[in-house]
C-alpha cells in the first residue's frame, strides 16, 4: 500500500498570523461565533482533509487590545461543527491539568457518539503560569508533575472508555434485558492523583477511544507521546530538526512496544501563497506591516519566561535567556525560538517579525509549487507523515491552499481525492483499540443496583 499524506486544518480565529484580523477581507469578530468555524470545517471537508483542530487555553490572553483574548470552548463548539459536517475528523484541545478524568472522558465519548466516530483529543498539560490562577492554585504545577498527572489521567480515561464492553447494550425487549451486566465494569482506579470507581455513564466511544493527539516536544513531552499519542502536532523551523524529531519519536514509540506507523507526525506549516514569488512576498509584507509589536513581545516573553522589559527590541536575546537550560512552561517552543534567533543572528524586533506568522511554526512564503515541493520533501525525507495546515488568514489562506496546492499534491499521487473510511481513525489509518477488559479474565462486574443507576 502506498503511504498516504495526512492533512489537518488547524483553525484559529481569523488566521494564524497575529495581524490577520486587520486585513480588509477579515471579519475581526469571526472567532466569537460558531459560523466562521462551521464554514471552515465544511471547506476542509469538501477538500477531504483528515481533520480540523481547535487549540485552547484556560485563561484570557493579554488585555484583548491587540487580538481576541478568548474564544469559544472547543469541545462544545465541535458539536455544532459535527452537526454541519459528516466525514471530517474533529479534534479539540483539553487539559489534563485542569480537568478531572471522569468528566472529560464522558465529554469526549459524547462528542465521538454525536459525530459518529470523528472525535480527537489534543492532550495538553497547560504550560502557562496564568492558567493556575484560574483553578485555585498559587503556582503552575511543575512540568514533571503535569506530565505525571497526564500519564495517570490517560490511564483513567482509557479504563473508563473500556468500562462498557462494545456489546454491553442488548436491548432485548422480550427478555426484559436492556444490557448485559457482566459487560459493564467498575474500574476501581486508585492512583497518585485520582481515585475513580467507574464505570462511565456513556457507552464506549464509536472509535473505541477518540483519536489521542499530543503536542509537547520536550524530553518529557516526547516520552508521554511515545506512550500515548496516535498523532503528534509539532513545530519545526528546519528539515533537519524535523528529521531528528521524527526519527527520535518513532524510535521511542517502538521502544514503548507500539508500531511506529501507529503514530502520525504532523508538523505545522503556514503557507503564504502567491501565483508568483513576488505576489507571495507582497502578501506576507501586507500582513507584516499590520503587526503590532506589543502583541508579539508579550507572547515571546511568555515562551521565554522573562519580563518583557528584559527584551529590548533592537538587541539580540540576552545571553542569560539563551543559555537557560530548560523552562517549566513552553520548553520546546522556547528552544525553537532561541535556536532561530541564534542561527540567523536576529534582534528581538527581527525575531518578532519571524514569529508573527505562526508563533514558531514553519512559515513558507512562495508559489503553490514551492509549497507542494516542501510538503513532498518533508513527507518523503523522514520528517513528517502529514501537516498541520495553518492558514495565515482564514478563510482565504485555507481556500488558496485548497485551490492551488491540493491539485498539485493530487497530481503527484500524494493526497486522497475521496475519503476511504468514515471515522477519524480510519482517515489516519489507525486501528480501533481493543477493549482491555475483553482480554482480562475474571474482571469484576460493576455493582450496579437499581438505586445506583436511577438519578433522574
Ligand atoms: C501545534 C501545537 C498546538 C498546541 N496547542 C496547544 C493548546 O491548544 N493548548 C495548550 O495549552 N498548549 C498547546 N500546545 C503546547 C503544548 O501542549 C506544550 O505545552 C508545549 O509544546 C510545550 O511542551 P513541552 O513542555 O513538552 O515542550 C500546542 C503545541 C503545538 C506544537
From TrEMBL:
The lineage of its organism: unclassified sequences, metagenomes, ecological metagenomes. Residues 32-383 form the Luciferase-like domain. InterPro entries: Diverse_substr_monoxygenases (IPR051260), Luciferase-like_dom (IPR011251), Luciferase-like_sf (IPR036661), NTA_MOA (IPR016215). Belongs to the NtaA/SnaA/DszA monooxygenase family. Signal peptide: none annotated. This is Unannotated protein. NCBIfam families: FMN_nitrolo. The keyword Flavoprotein applies. Keywords: Flavoprotein, FMN, Monooxygenase, Oxidoreductase. GO terms for molecular function: monooxygenase activity; oxidoreductase activity, acting on paired donors, with incorporation or reduction of molecular oxygen. Pfam families: Bac_luciferase. SUPFAM superfamilies: Bacterial luciferase-like.
Amino acid at each position: 500500500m502506498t503511504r498516504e499524506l495526512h492533512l489537518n486544518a488547524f483553525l484559529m480565529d481569523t488566521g494564524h498570523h497575529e495581524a490577520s484580523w486587520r486585513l480588509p477581507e477579515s471579519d475581526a469578530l469571526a472567532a466569537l461565533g460558531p459560523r466562521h468555524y462551521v464554514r471552515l470545517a465544511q471547506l476542509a471537508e469538501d477538500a477531504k482533509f483528515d481533520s480540523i483542530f481547535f487549540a485552547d487555553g484556560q485563561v484570557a490572553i493579554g488585555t484583548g487590545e491587540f487580538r481576541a483574548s478568548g474564544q469559544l470552548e472547543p469541545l462544545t463548539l465541535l458539536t455544532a461543527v459535527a452537526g454541519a459536517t459528516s466525514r471530517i475528523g474533529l479534534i479539540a484541545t483539553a487539559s489534563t491539568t485542569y480537568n478531572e478524568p471522569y468528566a472529560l472522558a464522558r465529554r469526549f465519548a459524547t462528542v465521538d457518539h454525536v459525530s459518529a466516530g470523528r472525535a480527537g483529543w489534543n492532550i495538553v498539560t497547560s504550560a502557562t503560569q496564568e492558567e493556575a490562577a484560574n483553578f485555585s492554585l498559587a503556582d503552575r504545577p511543575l512540568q514533571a508533575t503535569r506530565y505525571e498527572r497526564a500519564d495517570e489521567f490517560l490511564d483513567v480515561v482509557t479504563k473508563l472508555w473500556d468500562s462498557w464492553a462494545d456489546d454491553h447494550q442488548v436491548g432485548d425487549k422480550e427478555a426484559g434485558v436492556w444490557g448485559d451486566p457482566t459487560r459493564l465494569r467498575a474500574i476501581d482506579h486508585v492512583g497518585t492523583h485520582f481515585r475513580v470507581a467507574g464505570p462511565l455513564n456513556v457507552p464506549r466511544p464509536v472509535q473505541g477511544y477518540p483519536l489521542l493527539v499530543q503536542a509537547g516536544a520536550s524530553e518529557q513531552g516526547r516520552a508521554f507521546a511515545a506512550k500515548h499519542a496516535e498523532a503528534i502536532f509539532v513545530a519545526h523551523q528546519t528539515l533537519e530538526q524535523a528529521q531528528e524529531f521524527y526519527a527520535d519519536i518513532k524510535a521511542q514509540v517502538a521502544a514503548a512496544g507500539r508500531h511506529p506507523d501507529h503514530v502520525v507526525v504532523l508538523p505545522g506549516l503556514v503557507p503564504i501563497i502567491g501565483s508568483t514569488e513576488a505576489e507571495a512576498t507582497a502578501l506576507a509584507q501586507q500582513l507584516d506591516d499590520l503587526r503590532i509589536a506589543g502583541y508579539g513581545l508579550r507572547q515571546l516573553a511568555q515562551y521565554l519566561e522573562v519580563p518583557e522589559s528584559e527584551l529590548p527590541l533592537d538587541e539580540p536575546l540576552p545571553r542569560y535567556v539563551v543559555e537557560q537550560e530548560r523552562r517549566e512552561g513552553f520548553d520546546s517552543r522556547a528552544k525553537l525560538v532561541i535556536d532561530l534567533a541564534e542561527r540567523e543572528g536576529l534582534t528581538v524586533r527581527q525575531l518578532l517579525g519571524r514569529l508573527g506568522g505562526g508563533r514558531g511554526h514553519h512559515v513558507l512564503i512562495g508559489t503553490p509549487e514551492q509549497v507542494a515541493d516542501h510538503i513532498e520533501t518533508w513527507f518523503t525525507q523522514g520528517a513528517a507523515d502529514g501537516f498541520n495546515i495553518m492558514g495565515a488568514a482564514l478563510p482565504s489562506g485555507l481556500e488558496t491552499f485548497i485551490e492551488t496546492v491540493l491539485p498539485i499534491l493530487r497530481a503527484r499521487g500524494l493526497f486522497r481525492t475521496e475519503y476511504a473510511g468514515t471515522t477519524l481513525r480510519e482517515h489516519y489509518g489507525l486501528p480501533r483499540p481493543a477493549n482491555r477488559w475483553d482480554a482480562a479474565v475474571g474482571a469484576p462486574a460493576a455493582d450496579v443496583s437499581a438505586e445506583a443507576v436511577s438519578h433522574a
